[in-house]
Every structure is written in structure tokens, then in C-alpha cells.
């Protein structure tokens, strides 16, 4: 029998224990095989807790990627290079009226958003991961009239989360469903925005690229 040293320096016998740490000495009950199997199964199924991951705050920068595709066909939207013709952007996103689009948003490092507004509609923002930083939403363009020839239409994007908010105009041109002009141009995989957060939590887009 193995021995242990007590707090006062005296020696005593160590009581044997099973794999679950249940003593089997005098006055203690040994678990049955069924109880051991049940406890082992419960331990195996127990999920580890997720450690919270912090998001960046004021005075820092991050990258945001935004993509839009047809929610029914999964087709990417097209865009047109307009140069300096219009004031909001050098690029025009080409969209259809009366169509549902799926919006995907990803930030690096993680930025937490809870609300999204696009083109006059409040959208349900769904987190794609348990730690945040990736979101999706469905945007229905029903009610948005086609843009007149030679013009562009700015739509407002608003994203907000704990202590931060973004307001950004996006230059677009809307077409009737089935109008082939909406498909002409370069396919847009993602808009890539470099963003800064000021001490008030306001997010500003400092650079825009396309992928």
C-alpha cells in the first residue's frame, strides 16, 4: 500500500481511487460498471466553452469585404468603371429592381455589428460564425425604380454595433429584371474597404478596391 505525507508530516496510507477519482476505501462506494460508462459518456460529450474574442475599438483600422449575389441564382453582380464622371465613386454597381440579393460581409480583424440598413430597408443581419466578424443578410430591391439613362443612384449602407457605426453611400444603377445591360461589365466578387475607427466610434472608409 502506498503512503502519503500529511500536512503535519505524519505518514498515512493512500486510498486507492478509480479513474473518475471516486475513493474506494472504508465508507466509500465503488461505482458500478453502468455508472462508470454513463459518467465517461457524459464527459466525452461535454463541449469545451468558447473563450470570448475581443473586437477592435476606437483609433484602429480594419478591412471589410462586401459581396452581393443574386439570392435565387447565386450569380455575382456586375460593375462598370465610370472614372470621375460621378461624384460618389469611380465604380457603379449594376443591380436589378424587384430582385433579392444576398449580402456577405467579412471583417479583419473582427468587428462586431448587430444592425444593417441598405437602400432604404432594415435588414436582418445574421452572424455566420460564433465569434462574429462574418455576416449575411437578404436584401429585396422590390420598390426601387430603374435608374434613368445616363444617371446613377446612390444607396445608403449603414452598419452599427457596440460603440461603432458606418454610413457609406454606394454608387449604383438599377435595371428592370431581364435587362441584359445589368450583366454587362466586370463581375464583382467583393468590394474591399480599408476602414478607420475614430475616437467617437465612427467608421470611415479610406480606400476602396475590387476583387
From TrEMBL:
Transmembrane segments: none annotated. One of its GO terms (molecular function) is type 1 cannabinoid receptor binding. InterPro entries: CNRIP1. Pfam families: CNRIP1 (PF15043). Keywords: Receptor. GO terms for cellular component: plasma membrane. It comes from the Eukaryota. PANTHER family: CB1 CANNABINOID RECEPTOR-INTERACTING PROTEIN 1. Belongs to the CNRIP family. Suppresses cannabinoid receptor CNR1-mediated tonic inhibition of voltage-gated calcium channels. Interacts with the cannabinoid receptor CNR1 (via C-terminus). Does not interact with cannabinoid receptor CNR2. This is CB1 cannabinoid receptor-interacting protein 1. It comes from Ditylenchus destructor.
